[in-house]
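Chain A, query sequence.
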Amino acid sequence: ETTLGEVLQHPECIPILVKHRLPCISCPMAQAEMGFLKLGDIARAYGIDAESLIKELNEAIEEKGEK
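Chain A, predicted structure.
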């Protein structure tokens, strides 16, 4: 499963994470654990629809790759 650190390597994903109110982006503890925090686990912990989030992230990455 994809880690938050891997997602953050794609700047186009940040607005999507913010839209879904993913608190880990600004969390000091998460900053040290970005490489270990799994996106699905974070979504479940905060009641975020993981399927919707992952779909939007994938679309943003694919769209960026087409440009």
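The mean pLDDT is 89. The chain has one domain: 4-66.
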